[in-house]
Amino acid sequence: MFEQLEEPDFGCDLHSVKALQRKHEIVEKDLDGLEDGIYNLHQEANSLQQKYPDVAEQIEESQNQLDDQLPTLIQKAKMRKDKLLENYDYLRFLNGFRDIMQWIDGMVNLVSIDELANNVAGAEALLERHQSILKEITSKEIKFKSLRQLSNQLINYENFSSDAVRQRMDDVKKARKRLNDAVVQRRKILDQCLELQLFYRDCEQCDTWMNAREAFLAQEDPTEDNFESLIKKHEDFDKAIASQQEKLNNLDQLAKQLVASEHYAKQAINTKR
Fold first, then answer.
1. 87 CB burial (10 A radius; 0-12, 13-18, 19+)
2. How confident is the model at residue 226 (pLDDT cuts 50, 70, 90)?
3. CB distance 260 to 187 below 8 Å
4. N- to C-terminal Cα distance for the chain?
5. With CB atoms 3.0 to 4.6 Å apart as the test, which of 38, 109, 210, 259 could cross-link to 266 if both were Cys?
């Protein structure tokens, strides 16, 4: 039994650790049976000492040896059980750590794509997709919490080397920051993309309106018969221009704001102005 309790193998994966734990449960049952057996031996030894007083001293010495060995066996059994549990939890932690780091890497790649839209609907769709990614990230918080709790449990284990656990949790912290930074940067770009497409749309609407008005005015050449009619058209055009001026001013102000905010397309915006 001593050899079983001093076995240096504590398992290299969850499956092997579980197998060793089941094996250890059998040893613990045998140890319980041994305690009962020693108690019965004591009863029999007391009877033999009375019956054979000439060997009473040897019987007592044998009893003492058993009594000395039993606590050692119990202590070794507890130590092995604790060590198996620690190793099982540590392997669970490593599996969780690997899963989370792989997930973070995948999400960073997902939010770091360069895809941009060339119309308002496309820009809104990209923002909606980004929002769904944020929901997935939020839903993963329970995984981070579980890993954090398991790491604290391992660190609190007596005689457990916690440096590796602390290092990996520090790696998780840095990876999460990397992901959060990527999410914030992607959201900034997508917001700028939508602003740009809205700006282009409004510019196009203004251009279309102006072209339509100019084409309307160019339909007739001035003559003596239509002179007054053309004057009226120009007056109406001037009024329409005045009504559009506020929208044009707003567009110009928006363009200035986008450029001042270091928009990724500030050169194109300046050209459009």
1. buried
2. low
3. no
4. 88
5. 259
Using one digit for the tens of pLDDT, what is the confidence trace for 37-77?
666 666 666 676 677 677 667 766 666 666 667 778 888 88
Q: Tell me how far apart the alpha carbons of residues 154 and 169 are, in angstroms, rounded to a whole number.
A: 12
The tokens 């939010």 sit on which residue? 111
Share of the chain above pLDDT 70, in %: 77
3-state secondary structure of 273: coil
Residue with tokens 């440096």: 163
Contacts of 160 (CB under 8 A, 6+ apart): 86, 90, 154
Distance between CA atoms of residues 107 and 116, nearest Å: 18
Any idea where the domains of the chain sit in the sequence?
A: 1-83, 191-272
Q: Is the pTM of this model over 0.70?
A: yes
191-272 has the same fold as 1-83? yes
Residue with tokens 């504590």: 10
Q: What angle do CA 74, 78, 80 make, to 5 degrees?
A: 115
Neighbours of 151 (CB within 10 A): 21
Burial of residue 90 (CB within 10 Å: 0-12, 13-18, 19+) is buried
Q: Where are the beta strands (DSSP E) in the chain?
A: none
| Under 8 Å between Cβ of 153 and 89 | yes
| Residue 168: other Cβ atoms inside 10 A | 19
Is domain 1-83 given the CATH code 1.20.58.60 in the classification? yes
Tell me how far apart the 2 most distant CA atoms of the chain are, in Å: 154
Kindly report the CATH number that applies to the domain delimited by 191-272: 1.20.58.60
> Which of the 8 DSSP states describes residue 265?
T
Question: DSSP character for 16?
Answer: H
DSSP conformation class of 6: T
